[in-house]
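Researcher: I'd like a structural prediction for the single chain below. Treat it as a standalone chain; there are no partners to consider.
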Amino acid sequence: LSIYKTFGFSIYTAKVVRLCLYAVAIFSLTWSLIHCFGAKKAIVPLFALGLSPTWLYFNTYQTTYGLDLTYAAILLPLLISHRQNPENQRSGWRLFTIGILTCLGATTYPAFLLYLPFIVLSLCWAGSKHDFSWPLCIKQLSKWGAGFLTPLALATLYLKEPGRLFYDPEAKGTGLFRAGGMGLSFSLETLQTNLLQVFKDLFERGSSYYFSLPYPEFGGPLSWLSIVVCGLICAQIWKKRVGTPYLLYAGIGLLILSAVLPNLSSLFPGLRRCTGLIAGFYILYTLAASSASGFANKTLRNLCFLGMLALPIDHLLAFQRNLSQLKIEEQYNNYPLLGAEPLPKEALDEWLSFTQAGKAIDCNKEVPDDHPCKLSEIFGALQGYRVWNGQNPTPIYAKPRKYQENIELKLETWRSGDLVR
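Model: Treating it as a single chain, here is the predicted structure.
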């Protein structure tokens, strides 16, 4: 919202911001992997990550889904620099910056909260040349915490009703870090059902809420081969405790947390909540790919390299198939703003003129019967455009389905939950 406040509202603003963040994330990943493992060892993991079907797919949306992966990648150079020089002159500002970015990631998409334990451990875990110290750890966490709390404090001071930022009882308990206000279910049956959907999204076909992907992350035999080889190499690393054990523990821990905690929610299961699984896997994949080159046996080293290479090859095969699907989805995803014009910008302009003239949005006439009449999206886009572009909000009237008369759309319309679509 601060972007809209600063630069004004456009139908494509969120996409531009998201793609800019993605570009920074790719640059950060490239620097981090080359810095830690060297250019040659970084090539295969970079191709696998850059061609990740899940990450590429979520970056086609203007929603916040999958942004936890982006923020995690952006944080990597700062975390690496801190671990290598935890007490230099710039450490305070670096920790403060890490705190701010951590807060932005967590407030942007709650799935990023699963990364917090590993970020904290990274700040306190002793580097190869530095012994662990509780006083130093507390000092570092206090600086990080100050950065984390700063955006929250500024938002609280800026808002007229800051309480609603954290918890809004009139909107089903939504608020920061609450993923739509949905509670957790500690039913084993719920966990099993949700995990099954996540595994379908990963291995069979993306078919969950906001995740329609014909060729998923591990959709072919080549990717399965890479998973097996990666697992064997990581088992060897675990056995010998060689290399960088923190990465091994972080990858396994993130896999476990991302498989369990998001799937305790009973509504709309799917990979969009569990993208930490992708991050956890690629931590292990990168560690395995870099470690394989150190095997003494040349035949074993070459076999492991081919096994690791199978994943980016699989992703290349998936790219064209998924791109074709996006052309189909483009027609579907524009329907909340349908008008006489097929493109979103032209459709928005038509709705602005339509409502400026005082005409009511009739869901029975303006929206096809086989699509829900998402008045919330239409209302948000129209009034957001007017507010953030310095125009006076115009009353918007609509006739929802099952209604006999027109009603005026206001924020309270959705807070009360009285609107029947």
